[in-house]
Amino acid sequence: MFKKVLVANRGEIAVRIIRACRDLGIQAMAIYSDADCYAQHVRLADEAYHIGPSVSAESYLNIEKIVAVAQQCGAQAIHPGYGFLAENAAFAHAIDRAGLVFIGPPPKAIEMMGDKMAARAAMIKSGVPIVPGTQTDVKDELESARLAESIGYPILIKAAAGGGGKGMRIVKDKSEIKSALRAAASEAKTAFGDARVYIEKYLDQPRHIEIQIIADRHDNCVYLGERECSIQRRHQKVIEEAPSPIIDEAMRKQMGEAAVAAARACGYFNAGTVEFLVDKNRKFYFLEMNTRLQVEHPVTEMITGLDLAVEQIKIAAGEKLSFGQTDIAIRGHAIECRIYAEDPVDFLPSTGTIRNYREPAGPGIRIDSGVTAGSEISVFYDPLMAKLIVYGRNRTQAIARMKRALAEYLITGVTTNISFHKKILDHPAFIKGDLSTHFIEQFYEKPDDLTEDQHLAVAIAAVMEDYRTKNKTRNFAPASQGYIKARGFGAATGWKQSGRPAIRRDLRNR
Amino acid sequence: MIYNVKVNDKDYKLELIEGPKNFEVKLNGRVFKLNQYQISGSRLTTILTDNRPFELELVKDDSAYDCWLDSQVARCEVVDEKTARYASLTGNSVAAKKQLVLKAPMPGLVVRVEVEVGQKVNKGDGLVIVEAMKMENELKALHAGVVKEIKVQEKAPVEKNQVLIVFE
Fold first, then answer.
1. What Å distances lie between residue B25 and A378, B11, B33, B50, CA to CA?
2. Do both A402 and A273 map to the same domain?
3. In terms of domains, do A272 and A408 share one?
4. Does B97 score more than 50 pLDDT?
5. Tell me, what's the pLDDT at A28?
6. What is the pLDDT of residue B32?
7. Quick check: is A108 in a domain?
8. What residues contact A307, with CB distance under 8 A and at least 6 apart?
9. Which of A136, A174, A256, A298 is deepest in the core (most CB within 10 A)?
């Protein structure tokens, strides 16, 4: 087993991997940029190394620097997390060349599945059904228009080199194709360094359902059930759950076996996810394979009882899977709400410093967070702050617990999408499990206004504050000050120096 | 002391009464017995009105407050009656002519400016593309108008609420 692992990421996933290392008795090495010098993942690591300026290209995307740091600190393996270099075959190769272990799949699997079109071709060969679309990337507007006509509008333009919603545009009509192509290619170039795009048919009201697979280096491959990730905005997932409300045992087995076939088709080992779109007739189509640990992996962990990050490290260390397909049982229901630093109405990202921060807790609640009070949310990185994961014995209990947890979660100083989640969890369509990738578009308007009583509370609080600031000389002290002084903190001197009356009453009826 | 308070777009008239032991607030004939607690240094306050707790945080911003509660932010303006009367006596300045502008809704980097000075735009036309957190956002015109001034250029970083374009 490794003695030291370098965590080549930041935020909540870096914290997650550090915890997995700790569980295995491994020392975790963190890397950080200028903007992250006070970050949680830095504080929790065993050692932390500064790797460059805040701009990702010069820090978290800098392969040479990261590999150099790994060698410098004596790490035997590197975990890439998700995003950044997680699906960068050049990174995996560089780690191999340095004599270190990449905690993930073999580089050739990353290359094959990272090229969305090569992946589609491999699936056709393996007999896995795929979404109708182009076999190669599209070169220009004329070709795109022609291909789009033959596939049939509406179509989706997608980046060949990556996902996460970047480099993606829906085109409903050929008049939009020019600007959509330009925008998608530009975004793809920025996000993945590769401007190639391809075209797929845009399915009507599909559900995004993915299968978690895990494989060791001894040719054992197991599927761990599905996740439903249909609630998305800007093609980025916001709420995920496991199992899916519409998948039964038979379909789980079908999709699971197709996912394992896809994994074997590219010689896969370690954790991976095969994404499918499921149409209204419950037919499933291969969308793409993500050759990394995904953001939403916790919901699978909750229903299977497995620790996927720990399993990843064990697999990379050469261990055999300690379970087979027949050992996997799906139990209960889990939901994850991604807490983003963004406006809950227009979803534009927000920045700032978190002032007050209080996580919910109690039965069935798990938080994977990269932030705390004082954390700074900057423009340089993805606005995902934390994941609120809830487990219940069934979907109804999971929803009830999630609502409780959302009401308890307190974050001030940075606008978050918590009120968005509250609204969705209350929606009859969500409660019925009536989901598709159009959910937000169809059902979401904006969060509820504050109640009348909440308006009054705000008015009263503002008045009290106004009164306080205009009457500083009055016998009027914030409760805490009175309380602390009464307890004698910094007592005698402070008391006398301020020249205030010896007896201090706070506002309360003491 | 009587206050006029505006919370988002609702108006209230409150009377704050300082009692021997605690404060009371009179509103629309109702009287609220009030307790307030504050956690030191964090500005997190619990307002206990009629035994119902409300946890909130007030941040003063220019002449008003941002009030954070229940995962939302309310905008709140307080004017006590004395100040309000004084202001009306001295006469309010004529409301400044509103300038139509496009402001950056979030901090980021200008990718491209899609219009020119003097160009007529319609509602929904693309004006500026700003990149933030690896996503490109196209800022569109909310009204039809004519571009008067372009205050940014490509590759320039922008702050939230920074003016990007001024319209006639």
1. 41, 15, 7, 11
2. yes
3. yes
4. no
5. 98
6. 84
7. no
8. A20, A23, A301
9. A298
Closest CA in chain A for residue B25: A460
Q: Do both A146 and A164 map to the same domain?
A: yes
Would A509 be classed as within a structural domain?
no
Kindly give the parts of chain A with pLDDT less than 50: 473-510
Mutation for B interface: A233, A377, A379, A402, most B CBs within 10 A: A379
Confidence of residue B37 (pLDDT cuts 50, 70, 90): confident
Is A377 a domain residue? Answer: yes
Contacting residues of B for A458, CB less than 8 Å apart: 7, 56, 67, 69, 74, 76
pLDDT at residue number A405: 98
* Stretch 370-429 of chain A: residues touching chain B, C-beta under 8 Å: 373, 379-383, 406-407, 409-413, 415-416, 418-419, 422
Of the residues A151, A167, A201, the one at which a domain ends: A201
**Mean of all residue pLDDT scores within chain B:** 83
| Residue A49: CATH number of its domain | 3.40.50.20
CA distance B39 to B45: 6
- Chain mean position to CA A333: 19
Judge if pTM exceeds 0.95: no
Choose between B86 and B30: higher pLDDT: B30
Q: What is the pLDDT of residue B95?
A: 39
Residues A358, A232, single domain; the answer is yes
* Weakest mean pLDDT among A38-52, A208-222, B76-90, B108-122: B76-90
**Domains identified in chain B and CATH numbers:** 2-90 (3.30.700.30), 101-167 (2.40.50.100)
A355 plus A470 within the same structural domain: no
| CB-closest option in B12, B23, B109 to A507 | B23
Domain residue limits at A470: 455-498
Residue A190's CATH number:
3.30.1490.20
| Beta strands at B64-69 and B72-80: parallel, antiparallel or unpaired | antiparallel
pLDDT of residue A235: 80
Residue at A111 is within a domain: no
A296, two tokens: 């939403």
Check whether residue A248 and residue A194 sit in a common domain: no
Query: Residue A83's pLDDT is what?
Result: 93
pLDDT category, B134, cuts 50, 70, 90? low
Are residue A367 and residue A422 in the same domain, yes or no? yes
ipTM above 0.90, yes or no: no
B44, A484: Cβ pair inside 8 Å? Answer: no
Per-residue burial over A265-281, b = 16 or more CB atoms within 10 Å of its CB, e = otherwise:
bbebbbbbbbbbbbeee
* Residue to test with chain A: of B4, B11, B133, B159, most A Cβ within 10 A: B133
Task: Compute the distance between CA of residue A113 and CA of residue A263 in angstroms, rounded to an integer.
Answer: 9
- Residue A495: what pLDDT? 37
Same domain for A360 and A214: yes
- The CATH number of the domain holding residue A249 is 3.30.470.20
Q: If DSSP codes are grouped into helix, strand and coil, which group holds residue A422?
A: helix
Q: Which residue among B23, B67, B71 sits closest to A418, beta carbon to beta carbon? A: B71
What b/e sequence results for A128-159 when a residue is b if at least 16 CB atoms lie within 10 Å of its CB, and e otherwise? bebbebbeebbeeeeebbebbeebeeebbbbb
Number of domains in chain A: 4
Q: Which residues 44-63 in chain A show a CB within 8 A of chain B?
A: 56
